[in-house]
Amino acid sequence: MGGSYGGYAALIGVTVTPDLFAAAVDYVGISDLAHFMRTLPPFARPRLTNNWYRYVGEPDDPEQEAEMLARSPVTTVDRTCDPLLVVQGANDPRVVQAESDNIVASLHEHGVAVEYLLAEDGARFREPRELALVPPRGRAALRRAPRPRSWTAVSSAIRAATSRR
């Protein structure tokens, strides 16, 4: 479970290393790195100079954009079958609704169980009536997951994933 960049991490976890995860909750997560950087509002852009452009890439450079897309969960959903809960605020100024719309559509196309919880009038589920929806839906997504994997299976998957580097 994670929000914003943590949502990206949750999505990467279930799409790049699905053997290590049984389910995920993505809360306003980034699904396409280049799209995210292009849609950030002006007030957030100055913070990108020293970190995002340097470590993630420049979305206006075609070569770097291709690398960013390769590291984006929206392009790797074919590797997962884990159930997901995607939580998004329709008016979130930083991680726009299209980030969640795109990952949910891609997951549906690949037959992955996904529930999409959208706060139509909110930014990040801050209202009590909105917040009250998230825990039960998150628990339901986790209950749909297969039984937890054994530590032996997890250790083997970690060794396999790290040996490819």
Automatic annotation (TrEMBL):
Keywords: Aminopeptidase, Hydrolase, Protease. It comes from the Bacteria. Residues 1-120 form the Peptidase S9 prolyl oligopeptidase catalytic domain. One of its GO terms (molecular function) is serine-type endopeptidase activity. Transmembrane segments: none annotated. Pfam families: Peptidase_S9 (PF00326). SUPFAM superfamilies: alpha/beta-Hydrolases. GO terms for biological process: proteolysis. PANTHER family: DIPEPTIDYL PEPTIDASE FAMILY MEMBER 6 (PTHR42776:SF27), SERINE PEPTIDASE S9 FAMILY MEMBER (PTHR42776). This is Dipeptidyl aminopeptidase/acylaminoacyl peptidase. It comes from Saccharopolyspora gloriosae.
